[in-house]
Amino acid sequence: MEPRVFLVGAGPGDPDLLTLKAHRILQTADVILHDSLVNPAILELAPAHAELVDVGKRCGKHSATQTTINKLLVAYARSGQTTGQIIVRLKGGDPMIFGRATEELEALAAANIACEIIPGITTATAAAATLQRSLTQRRIARSLHFLTGHGAEGGLPAHDWVALTRTGGTLVIYMGSQTIAGLASHLIEAGMNPTMPAIAVENVSLPTQNVTTATISSLPSRLGRPTGPTILLIGDALAADDDVEAIAAQAVVGVG
Ligand SMILES: C[S@@+](CC[C@H](N)C(=O)[O-])C[C@H]1O[C@@H](n2cnc3c(N)ncnc32)[C@H](O)[C@@H]1O
């Protein structure tokens, strides 16, 4: 039987960054269970009759509600099996990157419900596009590491800082704006050059997009406390002579 349940990546915010498939599925949805971060302009693509359910999970916070989300998803999916409704679970960026997709897929599998996954543009690549900086570069950045700055217990996770620093690759940190001070000191203590380029991008791809350029040692004080979702990019690949903040200011952004 064709899946009636779709786990869909909404991309970083700009509706133009949805995949064609995500757009098409949204237009057929009867129910959309979405995260709070999803741009309302994307939800407007759903048919007027579609039920929109804000499952209210933001950036790994309130993780205690994940069980509730799983139960809700399974309940909607079950009733969709009998009514023929299309159920969409819509997540920011790509659902398979820091999206807790595993828990939701396992809950659906345990209930014998098939689910199709539609990837989305993850924030890291959208930020790279906005900054006009490649995250990998021959001889400069041979690897790319996606990290979370927010551990299950709330603070900074215990990454292997020495190993991360030694790779010389680009580090992209999701959910790291609140733990940036600890993150920066761990990296510097592990041997990272304090002048290593570090860039924070808040609200990537939206009109409220805001870029902070710094070094790893100055980023904590330069960044302050952003209110919107923020991604951090660290590494030699981010260095350049041009003015990255001016470039990002020229970037085409979507409706917010
Ligand atoms: C729970 S993670 C979800 C990541 C998402 N699945 C992805 O692929 O981008 C949430 C974090 O992603 C980053 N993020 C999501 N949307 C963003 C945006 N539009 N601008 C900047 N950072 C964003 C922030 O670091 C935020 O704390």
What are the salient characteristics of this protein?
alpha/beta; 10 strands; 256 residues; binds S-adenosylmethionine; Cobalt-precorrin-4 Transmethylase, domain 1
Average pLDDT for all residues: 92
Q: Compute the number of helices.
A: 9
Q: List the ligand species.
A: S-adenosylmethionine
Assess the beta-strand content as a share of residues. Answer: 15-25%
Do you know the CATH architecture of the largest domain? 2-Layer Sandwich
Strand order of the largest sheet: 3-2-4-1-5
Structural category: alpha/beta
Poorly predicted regions are none
Number of strands: 10
Task: Using the coordinates shown, work out and report the CATH topology of the largest domain.
Answer: Methyltransferase, Cobalt-precorrin-4 Transmethylase, Domain 2
What is the CATH class name of the largest domain?
Alpha Beta
Describe this entry's structure for a reader.
The protein is an alpha/beta fold. It folds into 2 domains: 5-118, Tetrapyrrole methylase, N-terminal domain (Cobalt-precorrin-4 Transmethylase, domain 1, 3-Layer(aba) Sandwich); 123-245, Tetrapyrrole methylase, C-terminal domain (Methyltransferase, Cobalt-precorrin-4 Transmethylase, Domain 2). Helix content is 31%, strand content 19%. The chain has helices spanning 20-28, 40-43, 66-83, 101-110, 123-131, 161-167, 180-189, 219-223, 244-250; strands at residues 5-9, 31-34, 51-54, 87-91, 115-118, 144-148, 170-174, 197-202, 210-215, 230-234. The strands form 2 sheets. It has a 5-stranded parallel β-sheet, sandwiched between helices. A 5-stranded mixed β-sheet has the order 6-7-10-8-9. α3 packs across α4. The longest helix is centred in the N-terminal third of the chain and has 18 residues, at 66-83. The two termini are 37 Å apart. The mean pLDDT is 92.
